[in-house]
Amino acid sequence: MTTLESRMEDKLYPPFKEYAGQESFFLGEHPLNVSIGWIVVLGFGVVFSIFTTAIVMIDKFFKGNASITSEHFNTAGRMIKTGLTASVIVSQWTWAATLLQSSNVAWQYGVSGPFWYASGATIQVLLFGVLAISLKKVAPSAHTMCEIVRARWGKTAHITFLFFAFAANIIVTSMLLLGGAATVQALTGMDYKLASFFIPWGVILYTSAGGLKATFLASYIHTAIIFAVLITMILVVYIKTYSSDQIYDFLDWTVSYTEDECKMIYSNWTSGESFYEKGKYACGPVSGNAEGSYLTMLSSGGLMFGIINIVGNFGTVFVDQSYWQSAIAARPSSAARGYLLGGLCWFSIPFSLATSLGLASTALLLPITAGEAGSGLVPPAVATHLLGQAGSVLILIMLFMAIVSTGSAESIAVSSLVAYDIYREYFNPEATGRDILKVSRIVIVLFGLIMGALSIALDAMGLNLGWVYLFMGIMIGSAVIPLWNMMTWDKASGKGAVIAAWSGLALALTGWMVGAKIQGGEVTVATLGTNEVMLSGNLIAILSSGLIHYVYSKFIDGETYDFAELDKNIHLVEQDLSGLGVQQQDPDELRRSYRWITRRGWFLTIVLVIIWPLLSVPAGKFTKDYFAFWVLVAICWGFGAAVIIVVLPLAESQEDIGQDLSGLLNFMMCKKGNINEAKYGEDKQVVEEDTAAKGEEVAKDEEAQA
């Protein structure tokens, strides 16, 4: 028996025996039948479409309004409560990358990967809560962020930020399908191109039928399922199958191998030919990590990824219309708390999932290649190893939930931009509500078809999920600070914003390509995709843009803007003023909400990206007890978030749910009237009073302007 075999026998390392001599985990074989892929991709989409659309129609019917106005289609009535707002934030922020890329960085860097993925993409949601309340204060009638840009800064800025908004939507939807289609193909054998084409159809059906409200209701269901699978995976890894101490020992063992031993592990044991290459497998010490260990926050690669993650995700939150749309849809009193709660609950998904599945992939020495990890196949590989076909099915369902929930949010976001900022603004200024509805639904269908084509095109170019994820900040990061300034700084210049956004993009692309040339000697997909090069491009994008906009606004164009004028330049298509009444726009309440979210948002941001990492530095390489505590935090956070995000929306909406069920029961029993008629009458009276008050304000403004 060789020395290596002796060491493995001493440690009783079962995965080594099971996968000995195997070059990759999936080997072109699929744990599930292709029919399972078709059932999930098409069957789930149809079922969710019917179920979600039916709920929306029942809710509308028993509240005395079976029709859907364009305002309601694109804003959900501006009356969404805290729990559902938080659930929607979690749902639309849970991309395929959240589930797949987070475990990839755990496979690469160890414990620092899941932490930096989670913290680096949570703070943007926390801080966007500040913009959400600012929007309620100064532009409550808005439908899109670009409408606000047009109202404050004019046509040139409007066209500029439309470009960045569409770029954000395209990047996000492309990543959804890049990871999603690759996983469906790996698990079921379903053709990548067919998966890319058919996955969006589930999104198209219920989004085009029910609009933003349908998207929100579906998002709640998707989020509940995602958390159910998350909890299952945590329990399987750290309670049912292994313990934190065992995973700790296995991770130590993985980095103890020399290069020669790694070559022996990853070789054909019959012929003796090795297929090991440095960086191809998670074997041996981790370059850039303290003591070469996976069990440390002292990781240069992890930190570099964290910075890229922070910059890139500022772009995909602040420049993505779907987050502005969620803010528009929320009640003013719910917006701040919904975003804060949603951000904190979302943190648990990448952190807890990757701390379990991601670390298990390296601890168990599964033969996952860098190519498989980059394509997002770490979670399905570990789940398949631990649970067999059941694990494959659970990951497939979880991934599909993430794709369709975010995909529906992106579809409704794009349709709103096209309907309000292109069609209504430049082609038909007198568009009616029916016109807006028609255009919105057509765009949802067309964009769903385009989504698949984008994914196929990126795959043909050799770009995987990890590459696009690191690139996104370079493309849209330069729009972040100008948009923040637009909502919070009265001296923010429109011309300066245009110059800053385009200059930041040009400088970022230039720096990115020059960096690739200097570091790699040539400009290729591979040299452009290194951490150092991606980091330089991301930082140039956001920092140069911010500096340019500040200097131009402060020293060149110092005009002060009156925010009281902003909402006057934004007009409703229909006089559907739900959520815009005096009761919902109480200035004192908005002021308190702004102060509440500003303090807590910035405090939690500092905790997550500065204080927590610094407190982990003295630990160096984690001890067993420290790692056990780390795992305990991940487990508790995951369980707590699951309970909150599933229970709170139901608790807040129990009265509405009861009313709808009672109305449905009466309808089925052929009883006339509705036992909740009095309650709806009261609600209707409140809305009518708010509408009248708002109408009086609008009339006075128009009279003053005349």
Q: What would you say about this model in short?
A:
The chain has one domain: Sodium/glucose cotransporter. The protein is 76% helix and 0% strand.
CATH class bucket? Mainly Alpha
CATH architecture annotation name? Up-down Bundle
Give the termini distance in whole angstroms.
95 Å
Low-confidence sequence ranges: 673-689
Strand count, sense and barrel status of the largest sheet are: none
- Mean pLDDT value: 82
CATH homologous group name: Sodium/glucose cotransporter
Rg is 26 Å
Number of helices: 28
Helix fraction, binned, reads: over 70%
Word description of this protein:
The chain has one domain: Sodium/glucose cotransporter. The protein is 76% helix and 0% strand. The chain has helices at residues 3-11, 14-19, 34-61, 70-75, 82-93, 96-109, 112-138, 145-153, 155-188, 192-241, 244-255, 259-265, 300-318, 321-329, 332-363, 370-374, 378-387, 389-427, 433-460, 465-476, 480-488, 494-520, 525-528, 531-556, 587-616, 624-652, 654-668, 677-705. Mean pLDDT is 82; it is low at 673-689.
Secondary-structure map:
Blueprint: H1 3-11, H2 14-19, H3 34-61, H4 70-75, H5 82-93, H6 96-109, H7 112-138, H8 145-153, H9 155-188, H10 192-241, H11 244-255, H12 259-265, H13 300-318, H14 321-329, H15 332-363, H16 370-374, H17 378-387, H18 389-427, H19 433-460, H20 465-476, H21 480-488, H22 494-520, H23 525-528, H24 531-556, H25 587-616, H26 624-652, H27 654-668, H28 677-705
Helix pairs in contact: 3-9, 3-10, 3-18, 5-10, 5-14, 5-15, 5-26, 6-7, 6-15, 7-13, 7-14, 7-15, 7-25, 8-9, 9-10, 9-18, 9-19, 9-20, 9-22, 10-15, 10-18, 10-19, 10-26, 11-15, 13-20, 13-24, 15-17, 15-25, 15-26, 17-18, 18-19, 20-24, 21-22, 22-24
